[in-house]
Amino acid sequence: MSSGKLHHNGRSFAESSSGIVGGTRGKTIPLDGMPLMRLVIKNGTVVTAEKTFGADVLVEGETIKEIRPGIAAGSADKVLDAAGMLLLPGGIDAHTHLDMPFGGTTSSDDFETGTRAAAMGGTTSIVDFAIQGRGTRMRDAFDTWRKKAEGKACIDYGLHMIITDLGGAGLEDMDEMVREGVASFKLFMAYPNVLMVDDATIFRALKQTAKNGALVCMHAENGSVIDVIVQQALAEGKTAPVYHALTRPTVAEAEAVHRAIALAEIAGAPVYIVHLSSEDALNQVREARDRGVAAFAETCPQYLLLSIDELKRPGFEGAKYVFTPPLREKENLPKLWDGLKDDNLQVVSTDHCPFCFEDQKKLGINDFTKIPNGGPGIENRLQLLHHHGVNAGKITLNRFVEIVSTAPARIFGIYPKKGTLAPGSDADIVVWDPRAEHVISAKTHHMRVDYSMFEGFKVVGNAREVFSRGELIVDNGKFLGKPGRGSYLKRAARGGAWA
Ligand SMILES: [Zn+2]
Fold first, then answer.
1. Separation of 316 CA from ligand 1 center, angstroms?
2. Assuming Cys at both sites, which of 73, 116, 440, 486 could form a disulfide with 454, CB separation 3.0 to 4.6 Å?
3. What pLDDT was estimated at residue 33?
């Protein structure tokens, strides 16, 4: 049979135009004894974090039933030939900001456009951030973000909770959130007067997770010191985008990483550093891990592939690369790749937080501090890591799968439902064509933003078909999933960071 074509075996079942399992969640539960839809993916090469092997995959309903060579196609409702293809567990992006208010504007992708773009690039789960407003209950933020996603999310999604205030019932709120499946909390050491919290708050949160098994994620930059440097730059008339990077030294990141890890060590809890960007900061994580401290960290494609030079682009173009931590000097890039290889960095997520250049980034045309912080990337993570990591010989295929799927699933409490290909796991499967050539461009991407940070990047390797809980949601560049089909992921406490 020709590759990439789905074949019916003549058995009748309710099928919607949206794909194999017939649309919205719940439909695959057997009704009136009707059998579950059976899909066999033939002749693929299964890649997990541990091994690579030729096998067929049998999917029944939303779940993987069996993985072995020689599964008979005869009993299946549908058969997909994956000869020459890699079968990967769906990507998990543990750091996204969809529909997020920031600096008087809102990130340009909502849960529909953002998760659709994610799926197009082989990501089938995200963990986004709800933000507790100061003086309000975490429940309010949780409900607000669930509403943002409801009816819109095209793939499964979990939520972290950003803590801005632990006064009043804050600690009880943390426990309540854990019961709701919010098994991780993020705190900021940057953005004074907006999101930043003091060390006592961070320490109290860490101590609470030592009891309830959640994981604290830290935005680690010394915001107070950076603020002094920023004010000085503005007073000297330094307003161009590049000063966003020049006012945030790597040592301010390293100091905060060191402090975050020290506070976690005192509290007896693990800690996860988000979007680590520099060698100085990485050294702090390595030193702690070498001592056996439960410190974990992620980086993002932009820190692996782009440098501060992007911020020096003529005109106001540098604003496209304004996010925090900022892009660094080139010397940092190979060090971060080494960190991934050596497992001092465990995860690559995107920190996807898009703002359009024309009507959003330009809010800061006369003052870099007014440029909305964030960049787009949710669609391109697997392509970039596969091409610049695996094809370039920097990481193995198995390590690639671990970094983009298995490790985030473990650390954030959704493994082995997500993050691997195994009997019993959700059938989140990416049929990956390792030879497909693709040029990344804002002209063709699916993110709702008017530029790409990786414009013109040529990559080899791309998702051909993407299944989410057994449903075909991407087929050869065509999106078939329906908004609202994504389910909320209730994540378990005491995930991989506690092991
Ligand atoms: Zn972020």
1. 23
2. 440
3. 62
